[in-house]
Design goal:
Blueprint (H helix, E strand, L loop, with lengths): L6 H12 L3 H5 L3 H16 L5 H19 L5
Length: 74
Amino acid sequence: MASQGSAGNVISAICNVFFPGLGQLVQGRLMAALIFAIVCVGGYALWWMVIPAIIAGIFHLWSIIDAATYQDNS
């Protein structure tokens, strides 16, 4: 990816709207993608407990922001 706000980051953020972690996967960050996906899917699956669903929602929003602001330092 080029820089923060680049077209690649915008596409990654849009991917995260539909499935958390997909944007990180598009950027090539496998561990971040797995962590966001597991926490969000697990939290949404436990929606009836309320607190895990709130945590999942926060992580989902965080994954979108993380993909949009990612800067490759290599």
